Amino acid sequence: MVTHMYYINIRYICRIVGCVWATAKRSRSKGCLRATPGKEEKEFNLPGNKIFIRLRSAFTIFVSQVTNIFMEEKIQRLLASVVHPETGEDIVKAGFIEHLAAADDKITLVLRFAKARDPFASKIKNQAEALLKQVFPAAEVTVVIKEGGAPKREEPKMKSSAGDIGRVVAIASGKGGVGKSTVTANLAVALRNAGYRVGILDADIYGPSQPKMFGVENYLPDAMKGDDGVDRIIPAEALGIKIMSIGFFIKPDDALLWRGAMATNALKQLIHQTLWGTLDFLLIDLPPGTGDIHLSVIGELKIDAAVIVSTPQQVAVADVVRGVEMFRNQHVDIPLAGIVENMAWFSPEELPDARYYLFGRGGARRFAEEHGIDFLGEIPIVQSIMEGGDEGRPAAGIDARVEKWYREIASKIVEKVGKK
């Protein structure tokens, strides 16, 4: 602590000496330190006591500069209390402060965020602004946000030795239990059937389902060095689809007791260190609801579109609102490809044309129409979908009826986001 205080004092002294020297040079160059009053009067047509006035002015400037130095240091210490919720680092230590200028009546702060559309940018700006206004009530406070440039839509979203990804589509739901992972797996198969190269990132950290869906629960990921010398994780591959999941790194019967920061760090590693190769589509199986994992994925990947999965019942549809608003938030601004209504009806195998609406009828469709969102299609409850998920064979690959439903939805998504 004492050493740190000495360091601060030495830094202040060095800056103060620099200000004195700069002030003296500037005053000398203007003639205000010349020793001969007569010459000063003749040259500037000023009275003899103008030398004293000039010196007093120079001293005032010097004091003002020193005051500003201490003010800036105080502001830096204040801003160190503002923490980025995702990284856990304060904005000073993390290097978010691009420019800081302070005077008695004005404070200008420029915050540079590395990620485009950082979801916490507005919150951090408001917090910093409120803090400065509270401590310096007489000052005019201006806080400006600058962001890193977002990649162009026509460029690959991840281009490195880890892979070249054409389009990234997030599959989300407002609540659990609506079959989001099942929809993700079958959409991947439908896209593969259409001739696209597809990968799945199982981002449902606390409940990874894709290893079970594709029958690769026992896969043990290997690693190999990429062209840049960095170790890359080799994803599992089933039915021609590349799959990466946290489920490959934990035992099926183990509880994943991770705090938010641990989970998001693990997810970031899966995103950036998986050797995807070249893909046309990467589907992200998000956890239900909204939270840290969603914000991490949004921050680390340029997502082209989001698909919301819901069941027809009102309880599920009510939760869709949160998912929709998350993607529509001004700091997220991810286009919605549309809504899928899963478990729309039940058709028993012996009566394939019969429809029993177990969870209500058309709730997700009505929600989509009322909120100006495209409705992508309905998926019923059929036995092959349940059996395919349990046996590691998604139904879109083995049941022609199911494949047709998912093919229609997949074609609408492709139309929305295009293909690289």
Written account of the structure:
The protein is an alpha/beta fold. About 40% of the residues lie in helices and about 20% in strands. The protein has helices spanning about 1-30, 35-45, 50-80, 120-135, 180-195, 210-215, 260-275, 290-300, 315-330, 365-370, 385-390, 400-415; strands at about 95-100, 105-115, 140-145, 160, 165-175, 200, 225, 230-235, 235-240, 240-245, 275-285, 305-310, 335-345, 375-380. The longest helix is centred in the N-terminal third of the chain and has 30 residues, at about 50-80. The two termini are about 55 Å apart. Mean pLDDT is about 75; it is low at about 1-20, about 25-45 and about 150-160.
Uncertain segments are 1-18, 27-46, 149-161
Number of helices: 12
- DSSP strand tally: 14
Rg, Å, rounded: 31 Å
Sheet of most strands: 9 strands, mixed
Distance between the termini: 56 Å
Shape: elongated
Structural class comes to alpha/beta
Helix content: 40-55%
Order of helices and strands: HHHEEHEEEHEHEEEEHEHEHEHEHH
Q: What's the pLDDT, averaged over the residues? A: 76
Strand content: 15-25%
